[in-house]
Write a structure and sequence with these properties.
Strand content: 25-35%
Shape: elongated
Radius of gyration: 20 Å
Distance between the termini: 21 Å
Strand order of the largest sheet: 5-11-10-9-6-7-8
């Protein structure tokens, strides 16, 4: 499974949130679409002939019901709960019933500054944990050089850090292992993957491909299975020496 395949896999897990019989004139559907604009979920409304169920929302994946919650719970989310202060991703301190099924963040039009913000969130988690493996793809070595001071601080911890970029200017940052890889996916992909030092609750990853200059498509996930799949691909493809 390539990095592009992982993005496709996550996109195929897009969920549907159906609000049944919203009241006439309600802005709930529009408000929820705005609220979940960075999440891998489509929000729709459905009117039934009977008018039942009322004030209920159902989250589905491929026809399977993942959660059914009263509309009041969604209104609580809209009032300020659940999403991170950055507006990107879910605050892992307090999951609502709906949010626990929406840990992957899918985005289509995020610029470099927003990608840096997400990357720093993951790097800061690795810094707090103080151990484990951090894998980071920068596309071009100049992008890593711009972050040299930050990565020197990370490398001062007991972290096993591997960075990746296309061939270019030399990377001289003590304490990490840099990999020069002349492959299309390294040239197109921005990723930061932290293995949580073996603890699933700390695993997290960002993976995106550049679709246009400084415009990225991909996701940020705390799902251990997805995080491991990215790490395993990078390990097999670039880190494991063939016999």
């Amino acid at each position: 499974m390539s990095l592009a395949d992982v993005i496709t896999y996550v996109k195929d897990k897009e969920k549907t949130l159906v609000v049944f019989n919203p009241s006439a004139g309600s802005t709930l559907i529009t408000d929820l679409r705005d609220y979940f604009s960075t999440q891998n979920v489509t929000v729709t409304g459905k009117q039934t002939h009977s008018g039942e169920p009322e004030n209920v929302a159902v989250l589905r994946l491929n026809g399977e019901v993942l959660a059914s919650v009263p509309v009041t719970q969604l209104q609580e989310l809209l009032a300020g709960g659940g999403l991170r202060e950055t507006g990107i991703g879910i605050d892992d301190t307090d999951y609502h019933e709906i949010l626990q099924h929406l840990k992957e963040t899918t985005f289509t039009s995020y610029d470099k500054a927003e990608m840096v913000t997400i990357s720093h969130e993951i790097e800061d988690r690795a810094l707090r944990v103080g151990g484990g493996r951090l894998l980071a793809g920068f596309q071009e070595p100049t992008k890593l050089t711009e972050q040299a001071d930050r990565y020197e601080r990370l490398a001062a911890q007991s972290l096993d850090i591997h960075t990746f970029a296309m061939p270019g200017e030399p990377v001289e940052i003590d304490g990490l292992t840099h990999h020069t890889e002349a492959t299309t996916e390294i040239g197109e992909s921005w990723f930061v993957v932290f293995d949580g030092n073996g603890d699933d609750s700390y695993k997290t990853a960002l993976l995106a491909t550049e679709q246009a200059p400084n415009q990225f498509y991909g996701f940020w996930s705390d799902d251990p299975e997805i995080v491991d799949s990215i790490g395993d691909h990078l390990d097999r493809t670039y880190l494991t020496v063939a016999p």
